[in-house]
Design brief:
- By secondary structure, the chain is α/β, with parallel strands linked by helices.
- It is built from 15 helices and 15 strands.
């Protein structure tokens, strides 16, 4: 018995100089991998098995991503062994689309991150049908590998019903009988609104204009004012917003852009400054601003500050103003080194509420230059004219001759 146990053909150690076979599979909510190698007699021996349950998010992956995840997990788990092998690793999987994985140019962001982890390995993905992939299928298709009872989180997640009976009330889905439609509300407002009454009187007298409102193509029928066969919605912002909401937020239009919403409303309704009102509503629509990309022109990329190598060569300056006077000082100049984060707080005073560039240069000479030598860059939240005068005065005090020139002149 001892001899049989010690000489059993299943006992093998990984040898980096032998041909390596990797079998992977993903089924439902579990990934399994088998690492095997050939012996001197070309007999395939299984070296090690690996199995891992999928998380709740991974259970929702497409089958392509599940199979690819099984490959990634195998290389990640046996990284030290597979990295050292010199021979090409043959990988068998029952998903033929993955055979062209390394040549595929259309990958998602998640797939691109996974593929980058495989670059350092020497392998070839080969297709093997589900019936031929016997060993790894025996692991993934085990009935007892993961409990299928409702107590299991993966199973519960797959069988979750979002809209259960206790959450749904049929009464909430029905329209209340006493709720008036938006059309009836507009008709009522058109009939009783004071401005509308005055406009109807002006139309009946064939007047071309009433105050600032032009009455061209306006007519009255059953005490309702129309313009070009469109129902006039009067000066009631709440009613106008309610109408826009009913048109813009309905599922058939699905939060469309401004022009489409305005076209849908203009088929039946009219009011002054309609486009301005619709613009205001849509620009303040939370769903539109969150879900839709901006049509504005792209701004230029931000230029990040370069990597610093020496302290007190790149500083940030700022003024703290409007302070109560203390010993005749009412302003604090903060100077911070970008690299070391060391700082100077320089108290100063000014009669007016502005500090000049010349005075700032004097403070820099006294507190910065004589201690830390000349600077390379200054980040300052002041105008370009202020910065120019500051540098000019600094160079003058340090006897530096400035020779300004332009790189291009037209």
């Amino acid at each position: 018995m001892k001899k049989r146990m010690t000489e059993a053909s299943i006992f093998r150690h990984f040898d980096q100089n032998r041909k390596t076979i990797l079998e992977t599979d993903s089924f439902n909510y579990v990934n399994n991998d088998i690492l095997s190698q050939y012996d001197d007699e070309e007999t395939l021996h299984s070296i090690i098995y690996y199995s891992k349950n999928l998380s709740l998010a991974e259970c929702n992956y497409e089958i392509y991503d599940k199979k690819l995840l099984a490959i990634i997990q195998a290389f990640k788990h046996w990284w030290s062994e597979l990295k050292l092998t010199e021979l090409s690793i043959k990988m068998f999987i029952d998903h033929q689309a993955l055979t062209s994985l390394m040549k595929n140019k259309e990958l998602s962001k998640r797939q691109m991150r996974w593929v980058q982890k495989l670059i350092d390995f020497n392998f070839k993905i080969m297709y093997r049908s589900d019936k031929q992939n016997i060993k790894v299928n025996a692991l993934t298709r085990q009935v007892d590998s993961v409990s299928r009872s409702l107590e299991n989180k993966q199973c519960c997640y797959q069988r979750t019903t979002i809209l259960t009976l206790n959450r749904m009330k049929i009464a909430d889905l029905k329209k209340k009988e006493n709720d008036e439609s938006i059309y009836q509300l507009i008709l009522e407002a058109n009939r009783i609104n004071e401005n509308c009454v005055l406009l109807r009187e002006a139309v009946s007298k064939n007047e071309a204009q009433y105050e600032d409102t032009k009455l061209r193509n306006c007519w009255v029928q059953n005490e309702i004012l129309y313009r070009d066969d469109l129902l006039w919605v009067f000066f009631d912002e709440h009613l106008q917003m309610k109408l826009i909401r009913e048109v813009h937020d309905q599922s058939s239009i699905d939060h469309s852009e401004i022009l489409r919403t305005m076209k849908a409303i203009r088929e039946y309704y009219y009011w002054l400054s309609m486009q301005k009102t619709i613009d205001k509503y849509i620009w303040n629509c939370y769903i539109c601003q969150r879900s839709k990309a901006s049509w504005d022109k792209f701004n230029e990329l931000l230029h990040s500050l370069f990597i610093l190598e020496q302290q007190w060569k790149n500083i940030v300056m700022n003024f703290i103003i409007d302070l109560s006077s203390s010993e005749g000082k009412n302003i604090i100049l903060t100077v911070i080194c970008k690299l070391s984060k060391k700082r100077h707080y320089i108290s100063c005073s000014t009669d007016d509420e502005e500090i000049t560039a010349e005075k700032t240069a004097e403070l820099m000479l006294q507190w910065i230059y004589w201690i830390h030598d000349l600077l390379d860059f200054i980040v300052l939240n002041q105008s370009s004219q202020f910065t120019f005068i500051l540098w000019k005065f600094l160079c003058k005090r340090l006897s530096i001759n400035l020779q300004l020139f332009t790189v291009y002149h037209s």
